[in-house]
């Protein structure tokens, strides 16, 4: 009588290229899921599209006649880069609120228990929200053209302006992802976003020339990321010096990504 011994072969771990391909596929799947949710919930559409349109009309027709631009020029041309930068920043509210909701409902725990790349939940959210932000920015540019805004520095620089606004908004989404996962309550997350985003955008060069602010505010307004980004976008759209503000903008964006990227990943690992 002979005895047959089964030899168990240990599973072969997929190569790095295969793992990367799976991670990209999972990220695209989560991105599609998040975009479908956004398109099927009217409240998301109202918040992300109607609100910035209201800001354009409010500043253009209510405050525009009362604000003079040093050196002359149209206020709407001065205004629109600031509105676009604000739209990109405010789009991050959706990131924080959605992650807080999914964390509270246990959706993130269920997704993490599935056989998929662990990075896909966070990266899929960021990719979807960046796409949503770009869509909103293009709508705001169209509304700006309807109320008199014009690019004065060529199509190429106009495209770069939109790219910079989108990259800036993506970096702010990373901050919001961290706060949404760390706080975990949608009402608290929304209140916290209002506390820091509103002052950051309004105490900048987005809506009025900094020279018109009180002296004690000018030091802050002149040295914060929104001002650098808006000044760069304005120069790209209308003409003027670009390099100095662009380098400072990229430095701020890189700093945000370096600091809040690991923080968001850490908060995601601890969530649940």
Structural class: mainly alpha
Share of helical residues: over 70%
Characterize the largest beta sheet: strand count, sense, and whether it forms a barrel.
Answer: none
N-to-C SSE string, H for helix and E for strand: HHHHHHHHHHH
Shape: elongated
Say how many strands there are: 0
Low-confidence stretches: none
The number of helical segments is 11
Rg over CA atoms, rounded to whole Å, is: 22 Å
How far apart the termini lie comes to: 56 Å
Strand residue percentage = under 5%
Number of domains: 1
- Mean pLDDT score: 85
In short:
The protein has eleven helices and no strands. With 272 residues, the protein is mainly α.
Can you give a write-up of this model?
This protein is mainly α and 272 residues long. It has one domain (22-63, 71-270). The protein has eleven helices and no strands. Helix 2 (42-63) runs parallel beside helix 6, helix 7 (155-183) packs parallel to helix 11 (243-270) and helix 10 crosses helix 11. It is elongated, with a radius of gyration of 22 Å. The protein starts with 15 loop residues before the first helix and ends with a helix. The mean pLDDT is 85.
């Amino acid at each position: 009588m002979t005895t047959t011994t089964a030899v168990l072969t240990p599973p072969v771990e997929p190569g790095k290229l295969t793992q990367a391909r799976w991670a990209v596929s999972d990220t695209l799947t989560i991105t599609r899921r998040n975009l479908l949710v956004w398109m099927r919930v009217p409240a998301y559409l109202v918040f992300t599209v109607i609100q910035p349109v209201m800001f354009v009309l409010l500043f253009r027709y209510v405050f525009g006649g009362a604000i003079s631009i040093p050196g002359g020029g149209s206020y709407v041309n001065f205004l629109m880069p600031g509105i676009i930068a604000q739209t990109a920043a405010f789009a991050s509210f959706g990131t924080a609120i959605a992650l807080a909701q999914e964390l509270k409902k246990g959706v993130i725990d269920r997704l993490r228990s599935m056989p998929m790349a662990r990075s896909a939940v966070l990266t899929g959210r960021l990719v979807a929200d960046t796409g949503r932000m770009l869509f909103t920015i293009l709508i705001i540019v169209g509304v700006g053209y309807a109320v008199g805004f014009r690019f004065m520095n060529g199509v190429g620089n106009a495209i770069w302006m939109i790219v910079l606004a989108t990259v800036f908004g993506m970096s702010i989404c990373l901050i919001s992802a961290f706060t949404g996962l760390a706080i975990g309550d949608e009402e608290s997350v929304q209140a916290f976003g209002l506390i820091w985003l509103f002052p950051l955008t309004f105490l900048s060069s987005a809506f009025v020339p900094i020279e018109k602010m009180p002296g004690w505010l000018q030091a802050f307004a002149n040295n914060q990321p929104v001002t650098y980004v808006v000044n760069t976008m304005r120069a790209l759209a209308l003409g003027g010096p670009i390099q100095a503000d662009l380098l400072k903008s990229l430095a701020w964006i890189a700093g945000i990504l370096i600091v809040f990227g690991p923080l968001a990943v850490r908060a995601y690992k601890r969530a649940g």
